Amino acid sequence: GNSWMVRSAGWAQPENLYVLCVACSLLLLLPTTEVEPAWWRWLAAGFCFGLAYLARPEGMLVGLLSLTLAGLVARPLNLRRLLRPTVAAGVLLLISLPFLVYLRRTTGAWMLSGKTEEVFFRAQLDYFLGKPPELADYLAARERWEGIVPYTLSHPGWVLDRARRNLFSETWLLVRSLGAVGILGLLAWARYVSKKAWRGGLNLLLASP
After folding, report:
1. Dihedral over alpha carbons 52, 54, 56, 58 (to 10 degrees)
2. Is the bond preceding residue 76 a cis peptide, omega within 30 degrees?
3. 166-172: long-range contacts at Cβ-Cβ below 8 A with a sequence spacing of 24 or more?
């Protein structure tokens, strides 16, 4: 293969762009004083979260969670205060809409990522067969069940058990990835939150990604 293409592959991964967009959004939402962010900051945050979704599908969930938490921080909490995060969420969805429509027309179903169905069926077949599935197994399962929802309704026990196993394995992977320094950082952050209880909403916003 082309050695320059291989060398640049790491630079072209979407994670860096995703982290940049999420970080910009959070900085826009965090006020420098007790006054809530201005309208333009809410709109820009929604725009950046939309770009984050286009980089990584997690951007949609992180964006909606962050905007929700930022709206709940507002005091006093009323419908007028919730208008800004609602409009920001609309901007996020507007930026994401072309890709969502593309996935709908390509796959025949509404989903956040084109890999959702593939990852789901491969994980279920790995659980059922006890070994990594072959391509023929995946294609046969996808053709038979025609989507995630029909399969889940037919095999709820298998899906829940697989989700339970994934929860434990991913949690252990996260602990190992954090390492001693990361865990100490989380403990320090928890102590800071306990001392700054009145800023709990802002701390939740920072932790949302």
Report:
1. 70
2. yes
3. 166/123
pTM value surpassing 0.70: no
Whole-number Cα distances in Å, 86 to 18, 79, 90 = 22, 10, 6
Q: Answer whether 59's CB lies under 8 Å from 22's CB.
A: yes
Helix %, strand %, coil % of the chain (to 5): 80, 0, 20
Per-residue pLDDT tens over the stretch 124-152: 888 777 778 787 887 788 778 777 778 88
Among all chains, which residue has been given the structure tokens 């602990």? Answer: 175
Phi, psi of 7 (to 5 degrees): -65, -35
Alpha helices in 31-131 (DSSP H): 39-55, 58-73, 79-107, 116-129
Percentage of the chain beyond pLDDT 90 is 18
Cβ contact 69:205 at 8 Å: yes
Alpha-carbon distance values, 96 to 47, 99, 106 (Å): 9, 6, 16
